[in-house]
Amino acid sequence: MRTVINKAVEFIEHRATQKKRLAIVLGSGLGGLVDLVENKVVIPYADIPGFPISSVASHAGELVLGQIAGAEVVLMAGRIHYYEAGDPAAMMVPLEVLWELGCRVLLLTNAAGSLHEDVPPASASLITDHINFSGLNPLIGDHRPPQFIDLGKAYDRQICDRIRLAAKTSGAELHEGVYVWISGPSFETPAEINMVRKLGGDLVGMSTVPEVILARKQGFRVGAISLVTNYGSGMRDEVLSHEHTMREAARGSKNMLLLFGALITDLHANPLDS
Ligand code: HPA
User: Fold this and answer.
1) CA-CA distance, 113 to 119, in Å (whole number)?
2) Residues of the chain with pLDDT > 90: what percent?
């Protein structure tokens, strides 16, 4: 495992030498953030030793390094999911590589279904906590200490506040809620949506939670934002599909880019308390 990480880090650092501070994982329909990156170095995952490649057609599968608003960033344009790999720890190598590249803050994005009428498609929602409804954990079988990870404040309080502030200063629409991870790749049934709403969920999706668990073990400070692409199954008379997700994500991407522009500018100007 170490040699895989070292090889990947060496490969990336050979192509981009800056110190990286801010890592961002881009979910479905969020690839537009790549356009904000200056002095871009783009590396296909396929070229990076040990990097898993997503089979989701809309995920570019590229690491993008450079600056946004003067801040050093590393973007993962695309991610691998549990439902592709059959392994909840599928994102372990990329996240450990980001850590070794010097990233200490990880911002995760995803497309999600909304469980509330007042959180419509194309809006953004800050993830304040999660429910792991998969029964899976990416740390099972990982005996490296620390073995038991506290998730009491998995979503960094200060980062959450900075995201709220960025929404205010940019005028971006931002809701908040608890994200429920269901493995996918099938969407939920209406009965499942009713159940997870009763359990305290506000958003539902197929990613992010295993990444948060892995990232907290690694030591990252984590923030996460959903781009709502649809109401949960059964809330509307519509057919859910990846095409539907991509269409609605495109509608919401302007709001997300506004939010991220303000957030990255602020994080660069006012570093987080240590
Ligand atoms: N369910 C699960 N994952 C999703 C959804 C959804 O409704 N929308 C986008 N990703």
Assistant:
1) 10
2) 85
Closest CA to ligand 1's atom 9: 112
For the CA of 206, the nearest atom of ligand 1 = 3
Cβ contacts of 163-167, under 8 Å, gap ≥ 24: 163/126, 163/223, 163/225, 163/259, 163/263, 164/126, 165/266, 166/259, 166/260, 166/262, 166/263, 166/266, 167/124, 167/126, 167/259, 167/262
Q: Cα–Cα distance between 183 and 260 in angstroms, integer?
A: 27
- Domains, the chain: 2-269 (3.40.50.1580)
Rounded to 10 deg, the angle between the 242-269 and 157-170 helix axes is: 100
The secondary structure of residue 35, as a DSSP letter, is G
Contact 73, 65 (CB under 8 A): yes
Q: How far is the CA of 83 from the centre of ligand 1 (A)?
A: 13
From the CA of 240, give the closest atom in ligand 1: 7
Ligand 1: centre distance to CA 230 (Å):
7
Quick one: angle between helices 209-218 and 92-100, nearest 10?
40
pTM for this predicted structure: 0.96
Q: How far is the CA of 190 from the centre of ligand 1 (A)?
A: 12
The minimum-distance atom of ligand 1 relative to the CA of 231 is 7
* Residue in the block written with tokens 């506000």: 202
Dist. CA 42–CA 66, nearest whole Å: 9
Give per-residue pLDDT as tens, 188-233. 999 999 999 999 999 999 999 999 999 999 999 999 999 999 999 9
Q: Which two tokens stand for residue 45?
A: 């995952």
